[in-house]
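Exercise 7. Given the encoded structure of a 237-residue chain, write a plausible sequence.
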């Protein structure tokens, strides 16, 4: 697999790519065009003059060989196209390095001076919703009551000190000093049908590098999250 990181430039991306393609092995028993024509001419020269071979059989053999040869050329062209397509994908994906994306996860990295944005989708209106924040050691470092929330998506932003929910600043803060940079886990609990349930979260994360898999897939390596397939990205911020 090939990784494109923040220090890669657009000019040398393709030269650094290593798209693994298995070279076709040449088999000694394959019949080439020259050998086929030579064999057919020899067959014609040595046929029984009293019982010559039907011309239609020679034509059928030529047509069959031409079809096989055409398929081989098509396969070669498709392999070239596939390689170019994968290279273009990697080049386009490299532009995501340094950007923020939103992915289904409960843990992400808070950079110094950075902001974590997240969202939850409540299945129904909840009279009591709360966000709990844990540090990398698993210690609870903050609990933010969000009160009653309508069914649907609730969006929040956290800068390490203040929490903003659906565009409104809450009355909670981490104190005089913001949280130190590091990995943080966000747990959202809501009261649903009289019971407290944990709601799945989606959080923003920075793209540190891009990996091009051998099968042509694109993997984004996210800070605090790890490797995520590009198809699992919920939003490009």
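Solution.
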């Amino acid at each position: 697999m090939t990784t494109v990181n923040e220090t890669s430039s657009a000019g040398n991306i393709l030269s650094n790519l290593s798209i693994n393609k298995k070279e076709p092995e040449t088999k000694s028993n394959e019949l080439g065009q020259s050998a086929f024509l030579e064999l057919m001419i020899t067959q014609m020269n040595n046929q029984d003059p009293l019982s010559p071979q039907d011309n239609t059989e020679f034509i059928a053999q030529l047509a069959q060989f031409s079809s096989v040869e055409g398929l081989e050329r098509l396969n070669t062209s498709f392999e070239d196209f596939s390689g170019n397509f994968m290279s273009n994908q990697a080049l386009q994906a490299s532009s995501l390095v340094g950007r923020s994306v939103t992915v289904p996860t409960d843990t992400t990295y808070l950079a110094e001076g950075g902001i974590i944005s997240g969202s939850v989708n409540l299945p129904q209106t909840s009279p009591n919703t709360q966000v709990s924040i844990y540090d990398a050691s698993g210690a609870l470092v903050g609990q933010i009551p969000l009160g009653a929330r309508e069914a649907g998506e609730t969006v929040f932003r956290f800068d390490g000190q203040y929490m903003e929910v659906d565009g409104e600043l809450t009355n909670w803060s981490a104190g005089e000093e913001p949280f130190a940079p590091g990995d943080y886990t966000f747990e959202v609990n809501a009261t649903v049908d009289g019971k407290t349930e944990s709601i799945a979260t989606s959080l923003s994360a920075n793209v540190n590098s891009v990996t091009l898999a051998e099968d042509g897939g694109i993997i984004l390596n996210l800070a605090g999250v790890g490797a995520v397939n590009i198809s699992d990205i919920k939003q490009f911020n």
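Remark. Residues 6-22 have pLDDT under 50 and may be disordered. Students should compare their own answers with the one above.
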